[in-house]
Write a structure and sequence with these properties.
Protein name (chains A, B): Catabolite control protein A
Structural class of chain A: alpha/beta
Radius of gyration of chain A: 26 Å
Helix content of chain A: 40-55%
CATH superfamily of the largest domain in chain A: Response regulator
Keywords (chains A, B): DNA-binding, Transcription, Transcription regulation
GO molecular function, one term (chains A, B): DNA-binding transcription factor activity
CATH topology of the largest domain in chain A: Rossmann fold
Largest interface: A-B, 92 and 92 residues
Pfam families (chains A, B): LacI (PF00356), Peripla_BP_4 (PF13407)
Number of strands of chain A: 12
Largest sheet of chain A: 6 strands, parallel
Oligomer: homodimer
CATH class of the largest domain in chain A: Alpha Beta
Chain lengths: 370, 370
DNA sequence: GCTTGTACTTGAAACGCATCAAAGGGGCCG
DNA sequence: CGGCCCCTTTGATGCGTTTCAAGTACAAGC
């Protein structure tokens, strides 16, 4: 049970300590026989290099840290997935920490990663990173994800405003006369979506628009409540297009409307706004705009690599990724549900979505969502 | 940009190196003024302890590593969530690595964690851990999750067989005469579910049962294909109850059946088998059995703590968590879809589900799935 | 046989910190 | 005033590696 260290391997193999180290890090420098001997000894003894010591002695390790606000948020997972693949491509490991919606914890893990000699760190922050500016001038490359920083630094953000615009344009294209936006714009991202919707509609003063605040957490239950409220209105005061700022909200709205006997999309169309897998993997898909989470993660790692390779003092560099990507559309099964984009059978649609975005692994990854 | 180290802080604060170290690790040993002075200096200089050095000097850190096969699998996330909460409760950090369905990578991260002086490591292995037995006799506490080990060691597994049994019993209770199980039992977990179904049905020889293999990955598309195939049969050869070994499969089956004009659950009932959030968060919920992922993660950390505290040589210890937990049932919106558990309105049902399982944070966590 | 070069191998130094025995300082008691 | 004890601070030591200048062995060329 006592840990076997490099010197044990060296002694046992009858070579010096430095040679074992070379076997691990620069195998090309050793004579093949020596290498083989050492590897055998390593396996026989069950030697496991002490990462702490390696890092201490050798400087940074080839690994990145990623701090996410939650793990059960599909978008964050797309980020993680994109970051992971890109990191592996460069031969880096990716370690993920869950801040669990807690400022303190986010800060804690951030410091932890910076102190672990990670080669770089990424965060999808809950608050603006300006909130803890100390972090931005750390001796480790850092990239903020899904957020706009005013301070100099690196960040990758999705164009949330465009996302709102796209949904609004979809509504316009579908001939909407009265649009209801459902949800609490508690986060900057959601606020921007609303802004995008307003901007797009500014050109169409004849279209009526209202925004209904949902409960604090934008849950499906909140959506259901608002849906019920909408259903209860006289027909001529009902919107003909509802946008859930969140897919889950949209789901709730649909449930309520249909429960109350209102046809979707016959009388009211409903769309979501964040490309949640549940929106298009369920048996009744929902039209939604998918923000490019995977791409954000990928780009984040690329910015990290850039900082590492150039070793230049971090100048400001921001990357914007258009959210336009694609609108997940689908045909539903049930007669009565959200059939608005009736192009082809649901599953074929999904299949074709995957096929057409092979370069964008998002679809593939989400597709495997069991 | 040069990293500031503990000696810099000490010099700047006019105290010795050991005192700064104490400020960090044993603040109660310092006079309040000294502590304050040091903390101010730390902040002023932006000092960040080098975790590698700490670990090297001080032995294990209070942190656990968790290696997951994928991140976009709801079940794994429940594990992560449970493990995280339990770990934090004990004051431990949790770092997560994504093995991305790759044996090599799983092994890599496992070694990485073991070498990082983690206090303990958990894996949800893809293959049986007997596959790489070297890992089980490492000098770091390790717990295997969601798998049965024959070797001595610690593991936490869900009772997948019970899961199959529960679904089968549901089918029986609903008066099924012909059950079709859909899916490829590629993994042990799925095999056990099938086994459970068979065992439960052994008592009912009059009920016909068939198993249809799905494509390699049990995707929704696979389910759709099989659903279409079922739909094409003459009415009297069609099952009246379909079990998807995976919720996604079940979703696909439903889509196909309804597309082909077969009423669900009027003519055919369909149930899933793994409590995927998409099953019950979507606008059309699916009946499914939820395996206790959250509980598995929690229990895993508890076993780790046990090993750490007792420091006894790891004896075999296995924990089984019954999957019985709860059957997520729901009322759907659309007339034609899977309404089989028509108890009360969908969202109320969900609300009550959450309320009744406050102690089981699974529901709460999944509920927040945006 | 001697020199030069090539191909490996060696081992001491440093990495940044936690630890802990020992020293320092101050108050209290006799 | 001396002796004790307690509270606080000190700094040398070692943690397991990597690195790199210095060393060894051997072959080829003269």
């Amino acid at each position: 049970m006592a840990k076997v260290k490099i010197s044990d391997v060296a002694r046992e193999a009858g070579v010096s300590l430095g040679t074992v180290s070379n076997a691990l890090n620069h195998p090309e420098k050793l004579r093949p026989e020596t290498l083989k001997l050492i590897n055998e000894t390593i396996n026989r003894l069950g030697y496991l290099p002490n990462q702490s010591a390696r890092q201490l002695a050798g400087g940074a390790t080839k690994s990145f840290g990623l701090v996410l606000p939650r793990l059960d948020h599909g978008f964050s997972l797309q980020i993680a997935s994109g970051a992971h693949n890109e990191a592996r491509k460069h031969g880096y490991d990716l370690l993920i920490a869950n801040a669990d919606n807690d400022d303190i914890l986010e800060d804690h893990y951030l410091r932890y990663f910076m102190g672990t000699q990670m080669s770089g760190v990424m965060v999808q922050p809950m608050a603006s990173p300006d909130w803890h500016p100390a972090m931005t001038k750390m001796p480790v490359p850092i990239v903020h994800l899904d957020i706009h920083c005013s301070e100099p630094g690196y960040y990758v953000a999705a164009d949330n405003e465009a996302q709102g615009r796209i949904i609004a344009e979809l509504a316009i294209a579908r001939g909407a006369r009265h649009i209801t936006v459902v949800g609490r714009a508690a986060f900057m991202q959601l606020t921007l979506r609303v802004l995008g919707i307003h901007k797009a509609l500014a050109l169409h003063p004849d279209i009526k628009i209202e925004v209904i605040d949902a409960g604090e957490w934008n849950t499906a239950a909140d959506g259901y409540g608002i849906g019920a409220q909408i259903a209860a209105r006289p027909a001529d005061e009902r919107p003909d297009f509802v946008v859930g700022l969140t897919d889950v909200l949209a789901s709730g709205v649909i449930s309520a409307l249909v429960d109350k006997g209102i046809s979707v999309p016959g009388q009211v169309r409903v769309a979501g706004c964040d490309g949640n897998p549940l929106a298009w993997s369920g048996s009744v898909p929902l039209t939604t705009v998918a923000p490019p989470g995977y791409e954000i993660g990928r780009k984040g790692v690329q910015l990290l690599m850039e900082q590492i390779e150039n070793k230049a003092p971090a100048k400001t560099k921001h990357v914007h990724i258009g959210s336009a990507a694609r609108t997940v559309t689908a045909v539903t099964a049930a007669e009565d549900i959200n059939r608005q984009e009736l192009v082809r059978p649901f599953l074929l649609e999904r299949a074709s979505t995957q096929a057409s975005t092979q370069t964008d692994a998002t679809a593939i990854n989400l597709g495997a969502y069991l």
